[in-house]
Q: What sequence folds into this?
């Protein structure tokens, strides 16, 4: 039964797989690099969004070894606009470890892969399957959805049980990609195309049970209230790399503080001195990493003291620096860039 289902998935994938740039490679090392790069990019990013970024990144840096010798600022610039910038940091760190320790080849076992920066259980198994054609299946959202509907189970342990049952020795890379592809193109989260599915005769899921079968997982994100401090003087804007603020830490940005009714004024004085004056400018709602942010933008009008980690940048200087999508939104709001 399970082998029959796996063969149907392989047949469907062979016929309908998408033409994606990371599925074409010139050598085994090229395969390793493209799989590694794509897996980092596809963490929390849709395929159609990742494609142009992947193509541009690969055009500029086309091997693990070259990547390992690249400065973080260049990697960040190539990543600009893709979001979740820790991935760029982890990708570079991982490339340096692989280049030094594994001769620019992907490690061949799970224990070595799971130790690399930014690699969890799913990515480690995906790299083994897609990069090395090993009999592994990483469970992402698509795989989980296909298997849970196919066998009508919700429990993670049961999903893992049936995933293991579907494993094959021949062409396991295509099987894993096939299940993911099925989830992306046919077994969609909403409005699944059951009538077109190769597995409809084997599947226990019926579309009319869809509403009752949806996951009860609470997907609501935490909302954090922030203050973005904007100070423009003589066509220069004040920025810092030292916002102690999770995913934005280390990246060039306007000074950002958590909104705290008791300590906001104190925090502003630490940045700009006790005589700081400011006015509310606008509010921005956005997503940063795994939370939603409600950002109150304030314009600094007067300050006699500036913390030593803050520096002024001209528009021209910013053109040559990596800018996060968060910073771009603020710069556009202030019309510092159009």
A:
């Amino acid at each position: 039964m399970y082998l029959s289902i796996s063969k149907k998935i392989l047949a469907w994938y062979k016929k309908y797989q998408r033409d994606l740039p990371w599925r074409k490679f010139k050598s085994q090392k090229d395969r390793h690099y493209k799989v590694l790069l794509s897996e980092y990019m596809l963490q929390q990013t849709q395929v159609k969004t990742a494609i142009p970024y992947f193509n541009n990144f690969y055009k500029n840096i086309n091997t693990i070894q070259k990547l390992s010798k690249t400065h973080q600022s260049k990697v960040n610039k190539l990543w600009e606009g893709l979001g979740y910038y820790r991935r760029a940091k982890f990708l570079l760190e991982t490339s340096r470890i692989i280049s030094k320790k594994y001769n620019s080849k992907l490690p061949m076992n799970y224990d070595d892969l799971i130790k690399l920066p930014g690699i969890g259980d799913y990515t480690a198994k995906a790299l083994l399957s897609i990069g090395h054609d090993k009999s592994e299946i990483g469970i992402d959202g698509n795989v989980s959805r296909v298997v849970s509907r196919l066998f009508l189970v919700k429990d993670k342990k049961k999903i893992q049980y049936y995933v293991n049952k579907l494993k094959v020795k021949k062409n396991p890379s295509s099987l894993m990609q096939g299940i993911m592809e099925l989830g992306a193109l046919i077994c969609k989260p909403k409005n699944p195309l059951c009538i077109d599915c190769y597995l409809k005769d084997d599947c226990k899921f019926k579309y009319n049970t869809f509403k009752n079968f949806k996951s009860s997982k609470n997907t609501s994100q935490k909302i954090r209230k922030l203050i973005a401090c904007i100070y423009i003087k003589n066509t220069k804007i004040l920025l810092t790399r030292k916002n102690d603020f999770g995913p934005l830490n280390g990246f060039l940005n306007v000074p950002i503080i958590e909104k705290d009714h008791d300590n906001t004024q104190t925090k502003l004085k630490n940045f700009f001195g006790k005589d700081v004056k400011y006015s509310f400018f606008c509010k921005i709602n956005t997503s940063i990493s795994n939370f939603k942010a409600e950002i109150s933008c304030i314009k600094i009008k007067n300050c006699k003291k500036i913390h030593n980690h803050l520096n002024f940048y001209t528009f021209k200087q910013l053109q040559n620096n990596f800018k996060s999508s968060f910073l771009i939104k603020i710069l556009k709001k202030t019309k510092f860039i159009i």
